[in-house]
Amino acid sequence: MGNVDSVTTSVLEEAVRPAPGGSNTDGFQTPVTTRSSDPAPSHRTAEHQPRPVAQAKPPHHRRPAPHRRRYHEVDLLRFVAAIAVVGFHYFFRASVQDPAFAHTGFSDPGGVFRYGYLGVDLFFVISGFVILNSAWQKRPSAFVASRIGRLYPAFWVAVTLTALVLAMDPNHRFTVTVSQYLVNLTMAPKLFDVGQIDGVYWTLLVELKFYLLVLGLCMLGMTLKRVLGFAVGWLAISIWHAFVPLTSALKQLLVPEWAPYFVAGILFALIAREGWQKRYAIPLVVASGWSVYLAIGFAARASDLHDAPLSPYVVAGVVGGVFVLFALIASHKLQARWAAKVAFLGGLTYPLYLLHENIGFVLFELGHGRVNRWLLLAGVLAVVVTAAWLLHVLVENRFAAPFARLLRTRWEAVARVALDRGPLHDATGRQWTPPSMSAPAWGTARIF
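Above: the chain's sequence. Below: its structure in token form.
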């Protein structure tokens, strides 16, 4: 990868929905009773006769509900990862470039913040863990709508704010053209060979590729076996690529250098649902080991790039520690009740990630030589955190869900019109029904 710039996000946003009308909390149909004195039953036609209702099974026949809870520990980890990346940019990356991105007055104090980029690795594991839950039992159109609604409204506002602030750069290092701004709104400017307005956007493109792969799994139909097969297959491709490189197109799509992190997150999600089983544990061990191997290799290249040594032991310890934490969370052995009180910080992660880097660099340059470095640091952090909070409250909370619903309903309306005009056919000539209009292909099991 080129720059180590930022974090990515993914959100525990899909609450378990209540059962359809007439169902009790266990998901069994509530019996409907009729009065024995119902008048004139003989005059009812067959279609007006009350339908027989299947009685609920006795309690001892009921299958126990899967363990479901909101993982506040993951929300907290997301915020910790974001802070690590902010520290990496402000205390290390800003000053190691020549010329410097910004004069922050700090140069990796204690030699700690140079490892902050590993927050990216943590975010990809989190993404694999939570996106599987987001996609589970969703129609493909609903999954796409939820992802677009979650990411794009806040992103469009952040791109606009960043472009405006970069125009105030006193050193004129960051220039933004109108065409560059418009292409960046797609979240994938690299696909069009256009420069990114903010270096952090590279991780969003990696996320979009992961979503595309999950979308394919949604269209195929999600079952536990298929999800496991997808995870193992993607991990195998990542390892294969190290010995027999993939074609450029496949490498761009399958992101083999980041695959084991997403795969590990998926496997942790399955373990949280099903418990520790050999079929999950073995590929998880492989994914963890392969992630550590790739992280050490990347650290060696980053050391040469920045002329700053990165200890392979520290890198291995941090990445390994991430997997240990997730193993405890997935096993339900790490349940910090106090984390629920600060879980709101997880909501600031995505906006903070979008806004902190280049906007922060410009603010540092504007105050350099005029303000004490500690006061300047406090002021920059106050500005970007406040902006992130406003973006979360005024944009994400207000527009994400309505925008997703609008996209989903529009797609379904188009699908209905298409169906009214006659059956659709795919490339092979077989009749095709839009995914959102057909019943889910997967079973009734849920991850959470």
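Confidence is low (pLDDT under 50) at residues 1-49, 56-67, 435-448.
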